[in-house]
Write a structure and sequence with these properties.
Elements (H helix, E strand, L loop, with lengths): L1 H18 L20 E4 L2 E8 L2 E14 L2 E11 L4 E12 L3 E11 L4 E11 L4 E10 L4 E4 L3 E5 L2 E5 L1 E5 L4 E11 L3 E11 L4 E4 L3 E5 L2 E5 L1 E5 L4 E5 L2 E4 L3 E5 L1 E5 L4 E12 L4 E11 L4 E5 L3 E4 L6 E4 L2 E6 H7 L13 E5 H4 L12 E5 L39 E2 L29 H4 L3 E12 L4 E10 L4 E5 L3 E4 L2 E4 L2 E7 L2 E16 L7 E14 L2 E18 L5 E17 L2 E8 L3 E6 L30
Parallel strand pairs: 31-42
Antiparallel strand pairs: 1-3, 2-3, 3-4, 4-5, 5-6, 6-7, 7-8, 8-9, 8-10, 9-12, 10-11, 11-13, 12-13, 13-14, 14-15, 14-16, 15-18, 16-17, 17-20, 18-19, 19-22, 20-21, 21-23, 22-23, 23-24, 24-25, 24-26, 25-28, 26-27, 27-32, 28-32, 29-30, 32-33, 33-34, 33-35, 34-37, 35-36, 36-38, 37-38, 38-39, ...
Length: 632
């Protein structure tokens, strides 16, 4: 009896309070003494209490409802609360503030106060101060502070938006795990994946599944790694791929800074420049995505690609960039392409002064304009790809006697030289000078520099040197510091060697200072045809050595053979200029010009000290034998 009177008094008190329009109500304890189950009604415009059965006792709150459970606050237009089961339903403008860290909004909510599990429907929005989650249906665990949506949702974080079919939000650590058809859009980055982990505080996206990223002009494919949208820095692993309209790079690991454009690739790096037909293999590459330059270390090999006869280049370090940037480094040296400036010296350090890795030390390389004629102190400098020989009646130009195809030595008497302009020997064929390329084309052409232990392999020509410069404008390989080049059975050495190519095949070879050409006469013999001069020009036809010109205190050693290929003698001669013509890799004619002095020795009376020119070296052991050797 006393219990019923107490309950009746309580209801009358509540009605009197509402009729007096006092909106703040004292906390009403639940049926359990457990404080987790306590739901406090802080405010409402109207309050009803109904008992449906022994298990259903409803509190009906209408108008500006404000409720609290522990550190969680609830707002809604109306609430129906069953204090027996500690279950709540909220309608209209639902708002939950969980421990002052997460705010959740919706138009409908179901809440299990015992388990502290909430289900939100219609226009659901979750905000943590850093980002906002939008979805139509979400479950939220107040204990674990985990929100889950399964029917599509999106996260907006400053300028970044992420979409996914399913998502799991961890409020304590600000992580969101996106699953299924994940897409991210950002002013600078777009992303698509099947799964993704994103932190709304740090704005770091972590990749845990195959992912495609578009950053600027680059498209990146990866399986693992992260992208920091705040700092614009990223790191990828698991053989990621980065490509744009002209190039593709694959590596075990990537790291780069989108703001500066600099990056690093490590582990079995493969780079392909589709615009220039170039490949790079290395274990470590520093690069700039914007400038399209790179510095490769750890056994780099670069390949200048062509259909059947690609050029392979190996060195300790390889650096490559676009010709447009090289022009800027050289004060507009290539910007006009309309002057003859000869050779100039640039410091390699200037190329790398803005690079992320300054590995190379003091080194200078010589570069030449694509239309610059090679200058020489001798007025008979060969400057075109094949000289035009002026026919003369003097014995200098006599044809060899018809000994089948055997070569013959032609000596000249210097007293009978005709008085003609010596430049006629190497008249310029203007049709062979390369056309000036338009600036927009040179902007995409590439140059290559290689340093220390440079090795080159091509089916037609092989070479070694200490350093190299190659220009995509004129297709010239410039070799420095004790370079050696081989073509079939011939070896050429000197202080500096230029190899002019056409369609990736050697067209002309130019050696200046201490030039020496050595040719093995027979593989099993110790006889070598030799030509020495201050400068040497060699010309090729279809990759075969066709003509050699030595100038400046020129010397030669030549072994003559009879019809049966038996050696009959050796001739050793000096002259101002020596020309040697080849057929099927063998000398067919030798021509000496000015100040000729020579001696012929019978083959059985060869003085040992006369068989080799000074500085003679046969360095076949240094010659790259195949392209695979360059990768070892």
């Amino acid at each position: 009896m006393f219990v019923r009177i107490g309950l009746l008094c309580c209801l009358l008190f509540c009605v009197s309070v509402l009729s007096a329009q006092q909106k703040t109500l004292p906390p009403r304890p639940s049926q359990s003494s457990d404080t987790v189950r306590i739901v406090e009604i802080l405010k409402t415009n109207r309050f009803d209490f109904r008992t449906i059965d022994s298990a259903t006792q409803l509190q009906i709150l209408v108008g500006d409802v404000h409720i609290r459970q522990g550190r969680t606050l609830f707002w809604a237009d109306s609430v129906v609360y069953n204090e027996k089961t500690n279950f709540m339903q909220a309608y209209g403008n639902v708002h939950i503030n969980d421990a002052d860290s997460v705010n959740i909004y919706s138009q409908y909510m179901q809440y299990d106060g015992t388990k502290k599990l909430a289900t939100f429907r219609e226009k659901v929005k979750l905000s943590d101060g850093n980002s906002t989650l939008y979805t139509d249906e979400m479950d939220y665990d107040m204990n674990g502070k985990v929100g889950t949506y399964r029917n599509g949702g999106r996260i907006e974080s400053k300028q970044t938006t992420l979409y996914s079919k399913e998502g799991f939000y961890y409020a304590d650590i600000k992580d969101i795990y996106f699953v299924g058809n994940v897409k991210m859009s950002d002013p600078e980055v777009a992303l698509a994946s099947d799964s993704l982990l994103y932190n709304t505080s740090s704005q770091v996206a972590t990749f845990i599944a195959p992912t495609t990223i578009k950053s600027g002009q680059s498209i990146i494919n990866t399986r693992e790694g992260y992208y920091d949208l705040k700092l614009k820095k990223a790191k990828f692993g698991s053989r990621s791929r980065m490509q744009d309209s002209t190039s593709t790079m694959i590596a075990d690991d990537f790291a780069f800074d989108d703001k500066s454009g600099y990056g690093e690739a490590k582990g079995n790096v493969q780079y392909k420049d589709t615009a220039q037909g170039a490949l790079l293999f290395a274990n470590r590459v520093f690069f700039n995505k914007e400038k399209k330059n790179f510095l490769a270390t750890e056994k780099p090999v670069m390949v200048v690609v062509q259909n059947k006869d690609s050029v392979f280049i190996a060195a300790d370090t390889i650096y490559s960039g676009l010709m447009r940037d090289l022009a800027g480094m050289k004060n507009g040296y290539i910007s006009a392409f309309d002057t003859l400036k000869g050779k100039q010296v640039i410091n390699v350090d200037s190329i790398l002064q803005n690079d992320s890795s300054n590995i190379m030390k003091d080194s200078s390389i010589v570069v030449t304009d694509s239309i610059t004629i090679v200058q020489s102190k001798d007025t008979i400098a060969a400057v075109v790809e094949k000289p035009i020989i002026v026919a003369q009646k003097d014995s200098i130009s006599n044809k060899p006697p018809p000994l089948k195809v055997k070569p013959v030595l032609v000596l000249s008497d210097s007293t009978k030289l005709p008085t003609v302009d010596s430049n006629a020997v190497a008249a310029i064929d203007s049709s062979t000078i390369k056309k000036i390329r338009p600036k927009e084309e040179t902007d995409t052409l590439r140059f290559i520099t290689a340093f220390r232990h440079v090795r080159i392999f091509n089916d037609s020509l092989q070479a070694v040197a200490d350093s190299l410069f190659y220009s995509g404008v004129d297709s010239v390989f410039q070799l420095f510091h004790d370079p050696i080049a081989w073509s079939k059975g011939s070896q050429v050495s000197g202080d500096t060697i230029y190899i002019f190519t056409e369609n990736k095949k050697p067209k002309r070879l130019y050696v200046f200072e201490n030039g020496l050409l050595v040719q093995s006469v027979k593989e099993s013999s110790s006889f070598f045809n030799q030509i020495k001069g201050r400068t040497i020009n060699g010309y090729f036809i279809n990759g075969e050595l066709d003509f050699v010109k030595a100038k400046g205190t020129a010397e030669s050693i030549y072994y003559a053979q009879d019809d049966d290929s038996a050696f009959v003698g050796m001739n050793r001669t000096t002259a101002d200029m020596i020309d040697m013509y080849f057929k099927e890799r063998s000398p067919q004619k030798v021509k000496f010009t000015s100040s000729v002095k020579g001696t012929t020795f019978p083959i059985r009376q060869l003085p040992e000290d006369q068989k080799k020119l000074s500085n003679f070296q046969w360095l076949e052991n240094k010659r790259p034998k195949n392209k695979l050797e360059l990768f070892l």
